[in-house]
Amino acid sequence: MQAISLNLILEIWFHISKKRKRQFTFLIFCTLLSAILESLTVALIFPFIQALSDPNTLIDNQYVYSLNLFFNINNPNYFILPLTIILGSSSAFSGLINIFKIWFTEHLTALITSDISKECFKKVISQSYINFSKKNSSYFSSTIINEIRETQTVIFCTLRVISAFLLLFAVFATLLLLSFRLTIYSIFFVLVFYFFTGYFVNNSLLRNSRLITFSNKMLIKKLQESFGNIKDIILYSNQKNFLEDFSLIEKKLRNREAQNRFLGLFTKYLIESIGIIIISAITCYLLLDDSGNKNFAPILGVLAFGSLKVISPIQQIYNNWAFIKSREAGLKAVLEVLNLPIKRNIYKKQKLPFKNHDNNFIEIKNLQYRYSKNEKNILDIKNIKIKKGETIGIIGSTGSGKSTLIDLIMGLLIPNKGNIFVNGKDIFSSEKFLETWQKSISHVPQEIYLFDSSIKNNITCTSLKKEFQKDYFNEVLEIAMLKNFIASKEKNIETLIGERGSILSGGQRQRLGIARALYRNSEVLIFDEATSALDFKTESKIIKNINNFRKNLTIIMVAHRLNTLKNCDKVIKLDKGLIQTIFNKNEFNDLFSKGLI
Known about the structure:
single chain; 2 domains; 6-stranded mixed β-sheet; 4-stranded antiparallel β-sheet; 10 strands
């Protein structure tokens, strides 16, 4: 393996837990034991063939002579049985060790890959909203699904390469003891063959590796676009265009994979043919070199048997090297995710900054935000102050900055200038404070993302029974006006709602999203067009229920329908990123009733 592949594998090694490294050490021990038994089997072939062809020649063998003294065997013919037993036992035990080694290699590969996959997913979901948004979701999806599978192949191939090296070394050492010169010639030829083959196919493997990784990401992206746009595809009869794009990517991907498999396997059949030629040449050499001496048969038998034992691990090394090279780009993608920093603790519970404090408030001062340095500000807010327990409405035309302001308040976007204070402390003053602030918030967007699971799991966002608060759950259903709907279902709260809530109406999905937000029991509730699919009567009832739900609940509502905001303590009107007006409750209702807003 070249340096770049080795460096990538070593980098993966540093991400493996100590427990897996101990298991790897045990695998190396099993491999060493297997290699010793394989070399013993090769070494026993020589005296075994001698015993079969001419037992009298065994007397000259120093190892057999020692065995003779130990067992007091006088007749050379009597050596055949013990040699057969020893050879058979060695071979059988070696076979059992190899079977266990293969199972344990697969098992350890699965465990390591599972650990890496979990760590990658943890890194992705622990990123900030800004960092996550910089990548297309298909990139992360492809890395965790496809590239992790490629990494699993790399790990398995690496373990097999190590095993093959140890076996090759043991068998090679044994063959050198039996016939030094012929072994050197044979091994030299085989190594030169594989070296030059690897040199010539290296660039093709790397090029295919990059194209395979890119194609996998494009396939995921194309699938997401197709499934997300399925209504328009059906209405516009656009299936052909999407199918052609998919087929083009798919064909290129499968062709590159086929090329890599061929480059990894073709040498096996070529070297087998060459091996027969070499054995034939050695036979001729022995006949000419030892004319009239029939003792070359055992040596030839050992070399023939040993060559199988040597060529097999060399082919295994080359084949696995080719697989590793062909998956190098995927391995890089996995390492890129593994090396992402985690700035927040996803397990530890923090004390919330907006809870159990006197004079709680949110204050925005001189806030500016733009997408890039070369663009003008899309938001420029001088001052907003929100007290705990207030309900604040935000209105404005499309593109006025409403959703951007909400994202800034939630800490999902970082302002270019200015501050957002909670109880006098800037939410961006530290990662820890930002994290605890975000845990104080429940957010209900216009488009609710629902799991393909039960109503209960979608509201609680968990399938763990021990975390289920039944009484509070029922209260939330009452507030969101879901009681009657759920009661009409045969499986009640265990009713499956389909992918993205496919069996629900738009209003039911929004009510489910509201119930989810309330179940979190947060201090701040943010609605971003969260009731747009509800009729006026249902919307008014739910808003009233929420206001009666908790007196100290702070609510921030973005809405296009102005009557949604009639119970707000303040209504902020934005225009082109600026605050045009801040109405108090009476001013807003008076102007609304007169149709002046």
